Amino acid sequence: MAVKDEIHTLADQRRNTERLMADDAGVSRAAELLSHGGLVSFPTETVYGLGADATDATAVAQIFAAKERPSFNPLIVHVPDVAAAQKLGRFDDQALLLARTFWPGPFTLVVPALPDSPVAALTSAGLDSIALRVPSHPVARRILAMSGKPIAAPSANRSGRISPTTAAHVLADLDGRLDAVLDGGATNVGVESTIVACHGEDIRLLRPGGIPREAVEALLGHKLISVADTGDAAPRAPGMLASHYAPAAGVRLDAVDVRPGEAWLGFGGLQPGGAEPVMSRNLSAEADLVAAAAALFSALHALDASGARSIAVAPIPKTGLGEAINDRLSRAAAPRPGKA
Ligand code: TXA
Ligand code: MG
Predict the structure, then answer these.
(1) Range of 294's domain?
(2) Count of domains in the chain?
(3) Binding-site annotation, residues for L-threonine
């Protein structure tokens, strides 16, 4: 494909990865890189995270490029305290009790996102909920305080590899793909945070982790439903969120023309034939897959809101971040039960 030569993804662009010590100079350099859209790995008490400014869609897209994730999983957003979390998500009494008890610590809460949240749509993969965590690791806490931004951070490993518990693990997997690693020694929990979703009375364990289930159950005074225990919980289970991404409009992939009543989602320079689109967006006129990933969920929301019966999507290369973009679009295009 001719367009392939013009595509630049982060994976192709080797970066100079700075090795930073977790002293004042290192932490301020890390915060500076983060506030300019950089990717910085830092220690948390669970595992090393691969951090970026959660409000910067392009920076978040580069997390997915660096990890070579074949799909866009929603990411955990790290904040310094409960008050900062309440600026991004809606906490009812139960969620607040959990937050005040287990934060700071290896515990993540999924709550409804506030409508005016500054967090980029890509960070939560277009969901209307947000995963929030207040880490206890002193280095993570200093970065959060100094950057003043919510930081999206999955574990700092390539997709399918083992989560890193030292800076050396991070470098072995990701050297040249991120701007800096802040070396704070080995992490002590070593497994990821426990994830609990709070949607009113419906409180579920999405992922077992550093805080034992029993501790959560003792606090709430009842057993937690595990997503694995239930037949109907799939949409909230990590990695199984297909139905949440689906727009009301249909999605038609690899389109080169527009049919009557359709919206157009373009990529690169392709000019579609056919009808005049109800609304049109281009994910990246320059055919840049990182930019396209950053724009994807907000474009889908906007085109869906236009009332178009269907969204015609230009062909998008399947390489680099294109794999995740195509994965997400094909899930949106798949027939789904209960929807016309
Ligand atoms: O310990 C940890 O949690 C580490 C450190 C770096 O903080 N982070 C981590 O992030 O494990 P990650 O991206 O590897 O895992 C995030 C998990 C995914 O399984 C994702 O599906 C789930 O959180 N998740 C995030 N947002 C969600 C949401 N809105 N609804 C449901 N699940 C969500
Ligand atoms: Mg992970």
Answers:
(1) 250-333
(2) 2
(3) 46, 78, 133, 153, 193
Q: What is the CATH number of the domain that holds 47?
A: 3.90.870.10
Residues with Cβ–ion distance below 5 A, ligand 2: 155
Q: Report which protein residue has its CA nearest ligand 1's atom 14.
A: 154
Pocket of ligand 1 contains residue 277 by CB under 6 Å: no
User: Where are any strands of DSSP class E within 217-271?
Assistant: 225-226, 250-252, 257-258, 262-266
Q: For a substitution probing ligand 1, which of 39, 63, 76, 133 has the most ligand atoms within 8 Å of its CB?
A: 76
Q: Which residues are annotated as a binding site for ATP?
A: 69, 73, 155, 163, 207, 245
Q: What is the pLDDT of residues 164-203, one digit of tens each?
A: 989 999 999 999 999 999 999 999 887 899 999 998 888 9
Comparing CA positions, the residue from 119, 136, 139, 104 lying closest to residue 28 is: 139
- For residue 102, the CA-to-ligand 1 centroid distance in Å is 16
CB atoms within 10 A of CB 5: 8
The CA-atom distances, in angstroms, between 309 and each of 181, 206, 248, 306 are: 46, 34, 8, 9
Question: Is residue 245 a part of any domain in this protein?
Answer: no
What pLDDT, in 10s, does the model give residues 113-156?
Answer: 999 999 999 999 999 999 999 999 999 999 999 999 999 999 99
HSE, side-chain direction, 13 A CA sphere, residue 221: 3
- Same domain for 328 and 193: no
108 contacts 131 by C-beta, under 8 angstroms? yes
- Residues 41 and 114 both lie in one domain: yes
Beta bridge partners of 202: 199
